[in-house]
Design a protein that fits this description.
The chain is about 40% helix and about 15% strand. It is built from 13 helices and eight strands. The chain has an eight-stranded parallel barrel, surrounded by five helices. Helix 2 links the parallel strand 2 and strand 3. Helix 1 runs parallel beside helix 11, helix 2 runs parallel beside helix 3 and helix 10 packs across helix 11.
């Protein structure tokens, strides 16, 4: 289990806004300590906003965490990408990171893709990052990119509703190449948890399918969060499952669901059709786990 800490007040139900001075930082320290106590060893970060600096000021000591860092866009130039990857470590207060990930597969597919990858390899050779890789989705052809660039890690969206990564053979291909897979978007952006509110427009036509899946889980007396985590954590090719959390309470809910007894379910019967799954992957960005649950 890994976590991506959500720092934006909107994702924390504005919980940070009314807190007195210092309470926001204390809440982050408590979240990280809760993660450490739960045996979480990997924290995924991104370079936008002030999240890296906040994490750097809040690590428990000694810190038990390895950290995954994302690059900025190649549109800023390869020099800027390298400089920002170095700066990320400074902001995090770390001498080195575990993994540096190209933030978009499009950056590698473009004209400067090889130059970008050479910069990442140089940072790895200098010992600033232990592993390098990229983020992608099924439409990017991650196995093809992996054969071309030979990454250590590929981060992919994998969830119960969208099982294409598994059923198209991408996971097995990456495993054959010796690539570690980190799973993101494991809660399908909250689609299974929506209750009492309309679906986003692009998903409205699939309300019946989602209702059917929720009903099957209810009949099996399985919580949707437990089911989604059990599916992804049961994939042998996946080495880390990243859950976005905005508070220690959210993290405790995720950890409890992850540690629950694995349900005996027909996973294939709980997925959306491929075209629907594609829409699911782009909807409801930023939905909170606690409101979804």
């Amino acid at each position: 289990m890994a976590v991506a800490v959500v720092h934006e007040p909107a994702r924390a139900v504005n919980a940070y806004a009314p807190l007195p001075a210092g309470a926001r930082e204390e809440a982050l320290r408590f979240l990280l300590q809760t993660a450490a106590d739960a045996g979480v060893t990997l924290v995924a970060t991104r370079p936008d906003g002030d999240g890296e600096r906040r994490l750097g000021q809040a690590w428990p000591f000694p810190s038990p965490f390895q950290v995954t860092v994302r690059t900025v866009s190649i549109t800023e130039g390869v020099d800027r990408v390298e400089a920002r990857a170095r700066r990320s470590l400074e902001r995090l207060g770390l001498p080195r990171g575990d993994t540096l990930l190209v933030s978009s597969a499009d950056d590698l597919a473009g004209a400067e893709g090889r130059a970008l990858w050479d910069r990442l390899e140089a940072l790895k050779a200098r010992g600033l990052y232990r592993r390098i890789g990229f983020r992608a989705c099924v439409e990017d052809g991650p196995a093809l990119l992996a054969r071309r660039f030979q990454p250590d890690v590929v981060e992919l969206p994998i969830n119960l509703l969208d099982q294409r990564i598994q059923h198209t053979g991408v996971l097995s291909e990456l495993a054959a190449l010796g690539v570690a897979v980190h799973a993101t978007s494991v809660f399908a952006d909250g689609l299974l948890f929506i209750s009492g509110e309309p679906l986003p427009p692009e998903m409205a036509g699939h309300a019946h399918a989602l209702s059917r899946i929720r009903r099957r889980l209810a009949e099996a007396r399985i919580d949707p969060m437990q089911a989604t985590l059990a599916y992804v954590m049961g994939l042998p090719e996946v080495s880390a499952v990243i859950a976005s959390v905005a508070s220690a309470a959210e993290l405790r809910a995720v950890v409890a669901a992850a540690n629950a007894q694995t349900p005996a379910l027909d996973w294939a019967a709980l997925q959306l059709e491929p075209a629907t799954a594609t829409a699911a992957g782009s909807s409801l960005q930023g939905r909170r786990i606690s409101s979804a649950a």
